[in-house]
Amino acid sequence: MLKIFGKWDEIIKLEPEHQGTPYLDGIWSYVLGSAYLAKGNMDKALIELKNLQDIAFSPDADKYRVGATPASQFLKLLLMDSRVKFIWLVENIQRCKVL
Asked: Residue 16: is its pLDDT beyond 80?
């Protein structure tokens, strides 16, 4: 819910309550990376993007499911979303520097 309402500072302060599966760890990296990206902390956003990529492509990611969908497939969708947002932000920052 915090991500939906843009509560970025609250997200950054949180420690994950549950962890240890590719799905939970991947979701956490996605949400935390989104918060860092929204706050303009590109270095930390990139770290979480890399974490999400590693988790999505880890061999054990398919051992878990999100409903009928393998967790790796769901996490790869989040990874694509994160990459698009990151690229969009970088391009807009560069565009603003030109203006």
From this structure: yes
Cβ atoms of 44 and 36 closer than 8 Å:
yes
Q: Is 21 exposed, middle or buried (0-12, 13-18, 19+ CB in 10 A)?
A: middle
CA atoms within 13 A of residue 86's CA, in its CB half-sphere:
21
Element counts in the chain: helices (H) and strands (E)? 4, 2
Residue bearing tokens 């996605």: 30
User: pTM for the complete prediction?
Assistant: 0.84
Q: How confident is the model at residue 98 (pLDDT cuts 50, 70, 90)?
A: low
Task: Determine the Cα–Cα distance for residues 99 and 91; give it in Å rounded to an integer.
Answer: 13
The distance from CA 92 to its chain's CA centroid, rounded to whole angstroms, is 20
Longest dimension (CA), the chain: 49
Between the two ends of the chain, the Cα-to-Cα distance in Å is 36
- Cα separation, 40 vs 74, in Å, equals 26
